[in-house]
Amino acid sequence: PGPDSIGAIALSHSGGGAAAQTCGLVELEPIKVAEIVKNRPSWLQDCRRLEILATFNADRGGLVEIVHTQMYAPTTLAASRDFWTLRYTCCLEDGSLVICERSLTAGQGVQAIPITPGFVRTEILPSGYLIRPCEHGGSMVIVVDDMNFKVLRHLRSVARERAEEGLVGNNQTALLRGFSHRLVRGFNDAVNCFTDDGWISIISDGPSTVSVHINPPPNCRQMGLPETLNTVSALRGGIICAKASLLLQGVPPALLVRFLRERRTAWTELETEILQADSSRTSTHDTLPKGKLSSVQVFQSTAGQDEVLEVVRLQKPRSPRGDDANHADNFLLQLCSGIDDTAASAYAQLIFAPIDASVP
Q1: Where does the START domain start and stop, copy by copy (predicted)?
Q2: Structure letter (DSSP) for residue 134
Q3: What pLDDT was estimated at residue 345?
């Protein structure tokens, strides 16, 4: 394969299947590439946790690891997954690094391992990386995976950030990417509401309905459930999460996200309507001006990443009584990705969260 190529190979042996392969040049040394690709939670947003439970030395300086990985559920209609794998790393005679990973089978003791509550035990297709050093620096990375090539995008982002850091003496791009990573991880935490993170279910009538969870402060988490529910309203802090999933047939993700993003004022007027209703009781004004929305793009990824980070300002209408102390403008940090991907199996997201206006 040449640089920036992608392909798929049908496998006629070993029970059949398909191997997806991609290849790309990365301006990082092979050791650094291997370190990054093995740290899956740093570049795969759906990965909640990765633990190395045991390591063994192999021939020619190779290393075998037993790895337990937990994956977030993408929606409330799906289940969170975990899998157990063997990962093998070795160095070839020409200086290339090889990292291979495959699921442990039932005959290798995985059946005796208890399943974590809230997860479904699954297997992954065999996958791996061939990392070849280039003569003039950098690495040629060949990835064989089940159509998940986010690692190449992440590697190039890291290489670009290292170059920027050397030029300007700071790493603002990495800081902004850290914000987007926190946004996605926080959203995944809210979608899954794992009990080991302190979430308590209040309302849950099935995956196709609205469910409500709370995550009380640490001092409240230690209490029993009935006492927690009785006292949570009296304590400050904590999080309440209401969530639901909706299946839309024949609607591409990119189209839906663009629709939500471009017509945001149509579905963010709830607070304005409440303000109008409250003001109508004490004012002769029949109507009030609606809130205004503006945004400033703070981070645009390079070509091929399709990810935008914005600061969104929601300007609330002013009260006719002149009491605007409790109606300051809201500022949101918003991540939007996948809006240019029109494939049927594409993935798009629009995630936003409040941010302090004093952040530079």
Answers
A1: 40-150
A2: -
A3: 59
